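User: I've been going back and forth on whether these two constructs are worth ordering. Before I decide, could you fold them both?

Assistant: Sure. I'll take them in the order you sent them. The first construct and its structure tokens:
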Amino acid sequence: MIAFTARCQNLAIGAQYAHGVRCFDLRLKSIGGEPHVVHNAFDYGTLYDIQGSLQWLDYKGDTVVRVVHDVRSRKDCTAESRKLFAQWCKALEESYPNITFWFGRNLYNWEVDYDFAYKPSCEERYASVCSPRILDDWCPLLYARFNNKKIRERGTDMDILLMDFVEV
């Protein structure tokens, strides 16, 4: 996989917020027993590295964060990794009480690894779930450029609309 295929936003959290974003996606995986922020094979550092962003969102008090256990194989989706993920989710809820967290599933078998109370309806409108074309899946920015305007105009009847590259 090439790095640009894992990127799904160009803007920092504050700039996304300024664009009206109120739901953020946080993907965690255990690396050496530590919580790392990842997207598939790409490691963006530890959960501790983004504490400033989480504190800022907590201060805002009107955001939702989807927490995903980004494990994609039996080798990575172990009882130990699931237990650690659940501990991290509980710690997130306790540390940031003004953020509404949700999801708590792993990507390997889609099971719930942590049961958050909030269970919104969600529409996902981005290349990896909406596009059968290989090019769009390899270049999600291309998908966003061709589709985001229509997605925004159509909106959603669900609680949350997830999309990549909100500025496009």
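The second construct, handled the same way:
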Amino acid sequence: MKNPLPRVAAIHDICGYGRCSLTVAIPILSTMGFEVSPLPTAILSTHTLFPNFTILDLTDELPKIINHWKELGLKFDAIYSGFLGSARQVDIVGNFIKDFQGPETLVVVDPVMADHGKLYPTMPPEMVDEMKKLARISRVITPNLTEAAFMLDRITPETISEKEAKEWLKALADMGPEMVVITSAPLATRPKSSTVIAYDRVDDRFWITERPHVPTQYHGTGDIFASVLTGSLLQGDSLPVAMDRSAQFVATAIRATFGYREKELGHHEVLLEKALSTLTVPVKTTTYEPLL
């Protein structure tokens, strides 16, 4: 089915409360000018930082939705996957990519499964090897440092040297993707900065962008980053510009939130809506650098 707008298949969970996964991917990509077709992997009452959250695994529904999309002849300019509801979903998503991927389709895999050195409570240990399968058939992967460590069978360090960072990026690219972005890479040489590092395997170049560290943490910023990165690459931006735009947007959303009193917020995620309009502003300045 032909569409006047570029179409993105967004394969993520949806939370009833809390800005993450589909509740950030849809508004971000829509603001950037794309039609989003959500393929929900699970329904959660809230994101996982809230106690006693509920989760409904939608594994058995995915084939039904996908088969209907095939009947409709849907085409996608990008396929973007994130949080999966079960390890069984990996093969379903892998087959979806193979069935719907065209010569120019952008495939972005955000291997959402871990942070702060450990797997999320909904993630079984076998999910690590399963996520590696998706990395092999992707064009871009966007792990955080913990997820990168799990995918490389390593221990998550508190900080990483620039030499180690480049080795990690290359090792991840050797799994298959053209581009690797590690969304939170605390470099030992830049202790006061929040840094993002990237590698483009095609031209063998490394990139870094940094923002001043804000002493707080919000849930869903990885989802926000990967969503902006997907939209930016789909708009034709280069990898360093795309990661720079993504880091800038996350920083803007965090600063729009950080000044409020915690009791006024009552949650653990950024005020996304206060920053969305900045995604329509053309790129004027960039702060990325080559990682030498």
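Notes on the second construct follow. The CA atoms of residues 9 and 248 lie 24 Å apart. The chain has a mean pLDDT of 93.
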